[in-house]
Amino acid sequence: MLFSLRFRFQFHLHTVELVYQNSLLHTREELAVVVVGPLTLNVATLLLVLIRWGCQLTFGSVPSFLSKFIMALGVWTVFDPLAVFAVDAVLGRLTYSAQRPIADAAKLAWHFHRTQHSHLPGILITLFLYTVLLFCSLTILYIYFLRFHNDGCLLDVFQRLHGMEGSFFIPQDLEVSNQELSYILSKAEQWRGFGGERRKVSSPLPK
């Protein structure tokens, strides 16, 4: 009966209730509880980006819904700590209670208040951890959005905007024959993605 009062783990649509006896945990264990949620999201997003990269190397394209899902997950990973903090604040979890869950952002503050009688070390460590996690989330999202989302269209635009003029190859007249150019355009028109995507091709050449 005592254990059931001290430990509770329950899912809700808007939050997760995790109640445990904080005094039994060391600092490193409490720290792990704080970062496990955002860190899991970062790892999951990174794995999906690697899968996306492997599919691009193997098949040349991936279903559009997968790209959109990875993009949505990456954006949510960036804002997850802030969203969790907002929900915890609304539910009144920033204060200490033995019977109610404590907000992830306040766990270390109350842990150091109990062990060292000061909230400051816990607040500083929490801010540092969330800053590192935010940097990792933004880096993963930036790499995916620039290089992989929509088959790297943004990377092409980025390179065209920031590249030096001498780095672009612009063929002179007659360097590419009409037959060769027609073949390249025909291959581009025949390309199909997993979800039936097509490449839009335009050329001044007569059909």
UniProtKB/TrEMBL annotation:
Keywords: Membrane, Transmembrane, Transmembrane helix. It comes from the Eukaryota. The chain crosses the membrane at residues 31-53, 65-91, 123-145. InterPro entries: OFCC1 (IPR031390). This is Uncharacterized protein. The lineage of its organism: Eukaryota, Metazoa, Chordata, Craniata, Vertebrata.
